[in-house]
Amino acid sequence: KTRIFAVANQKGGVGKTTTAINLAAALAQGARVLLVDLDPQGNASTGLGIGYDQRQTGTYSAIMQEGDTASLPRPSTVENLSVIAADNELAGAEIELITADRREYRLRETLRGYGTRFDYILIDCPPSLGMLTLNALVAADAVLVPLQCEFFALEGISQLVRTVDRVRRAFNSDLHIGGIALTMYDRRNNLSELVAADARSFFGDQVFETLIPRNIRISEAQSHGTPVMVYDPKSSGAAAYLALAGEVKGRG
Amino acid sequence: KTRIFAVANQKGGVGKTTTAINLAAALAQGARVLLVDLDPQGNASTGLGIGYDQRQTGTYSAIMQEGDTASLPRPSTVENLSVIAADNELAGAEIELITADRREYRLRETLRGYGTRFDYILIDCPPSLGMLTLNALVAADAVLVPLQCEFFALEGISQLVRTVDRVRRAFNSDLHIGGIALTMYDRRNNLSELVAADARSFFGDQVFETLIPRNIRISEAQSHGTPVMVYDPKSSGAAAYLALAGEVKGRG
Ligand SMILES: Nc1ncnc2c1ncn2[C@@H]1O[C@H](COP(=O)(O)OP(=O)(O)OP(=O)(O)O)[C@@H](O)[C@H]1O
Ligand SMILES: Nc1ncnc2c1ncn2[C@@H]1O[C@H](COP(=O)(O)OP(=O)(O)OP(=O)(O)O)[C@@H](O)[C@H]1O
Ligand SMILES: [Mg+2]
Ligand SMILES: [Mg+2]
């Protein structure tokens, strides 16, 4: 059975896209993976080197169920990793969905329609709890929550947990927190350790063991349109995302 | 005349809240300033030490024009700096506004109602281009755009500029880009300089001269609920925000 993860956190800039790209690439080393870019900014599409000219049809078509949705996943430069890119109309979908019928279930229906074509599907969410993220939470089995090791990080988490609870009760009884990934951890910065310790005391073993370090090779890789384990396999960033993939597989 | 700024960028984690808090505190050294926390996450309220128990009425009341809006600005620990905190119902306002009448003008009406009580009003926006940010763009004279010196930073800027143009034509003929502030600049990181150079070639002298450095004292100050120039007046972060305030005043 395909495992579907929403990579979500309404706090901005915490490493959602970075985690979606690199975890997807790490999982693709031994499985068939689909990455869905549900953020109108299209950072996941850019981070995998997908040009603007290749984004004619994508996640908007998947949600509005226009045309042949089976052909929406496109191969990326990474073996076993397919992508549904953020197309241009996606920016308007948040408002359009408000009045659409079955508005919460659209992405779920399209992704479930792929049967067993993929072993993992990861959905990169925008930094808000609106209709797009709601679609991802209804489509997913579990939520992966990147948590930046910075001061404001824990502030919005209870709002996210409440939203996940509401979605589980109203739309998707499978939905649960799949794990919390601590990102941009910086050993030299006391705040990092404080946030990590706080997260572990709140969430216990829902927090992954793997700490994703702040590592310049991760953002350099993005500027080259490729995952960090392809750009610099020996980097601490590559090692961390491979370890995280191992934990995600293990919690299966 | 009161100058009203929206601090906006739909990209997450770029330093909107950090810029709103610290620029407001720097301007407050010689002027009467109001900071409006329009982000349901409430990071600006937390960063100024406003407890959850003090957020009974705030920005939601300002938008829904409930009760005595004149009493919504509350003093902060910083002299000459008042705050309208993010109250608990703000998370629901984005959806509620969709069907409200005069939905784009509500915050503008409340803030204009303060007459000349303040010299500057800064509005901290959430990381999206929805109804809350739209209210801020209609209320403001100018937009201050924090731009993180990281790879994905420039990706969403053209969407923001298009939105500002649309708002100017449809709702607020004064609205313009007041300036672009380069944040989290790290001299040791080539990407920082690349992004800064790109921004200057796109936007010319709309980009402020002041570079806001990545400086741990800035996030430590937030964990103490106080602006960086109060927490550590000698830090590079404090100096940068004071310099930025000088530029903002100068462009009046
Ligand atoms: N471990 C890391 N080390 C260094 N830089 C990182 C790391 N993780 C993310 N970054 C950088 O931090 C910035 C924010 O990360 P990213 O864009 O993945 O966050 P996000 O949560 O997806 O943001 P948004 O809320 O806008 O969707 C990016 O510029 C990215 O390159
Ligand atoms: N110049 C800086 N030096 C060091 N850390 C910084 C700096 N500016 C911001 N930060 C930290 O980076 C993180 C993101 O900043 P901030 O929360 O201000 O961004 P934002 O754009 O308001 O995020 P959101 O999109 O969630 O509203 C915070 O944890 C903050 O403490
Ligand atoms: Mg992202
Ligand atoms: Mg913010």
Model description:
With 252 residues, chain A is of the alpha/beta class. The longest helix of chain A has 15 residues, at 236-250. In chain A, strands 3-4-2-5-1-6-7-8 form an 8-stranded mixed sheet, sandwiched between helices. Chain A is globular. In chain A, 41% of the residues lie in helices and 18% in strands. Chain A is built from 11 helices and 8 strands. Chain A has helices spanning 16-27, 43-47, 59-64, 90-98, 106-112, 131-139, 157-170, 190-203, 216-223, 228-231, 236-250, and strands at residues 3-7, 33-37, 74-75, 81-84, 120-124, 142-148, 176-185, 207-213. The termini of chain A are close together. The structure holds adenosine-5'-triphosphate (ATP) (2 copies) and magnesium ion (2 copies). One magnesium ion binds next to helix 1 of chain A.
Task: Write a brief structural summary.
2 copies of one chain form a homodimer. With 252 residues, the first copy, chain A, is of the alpha/beta class.
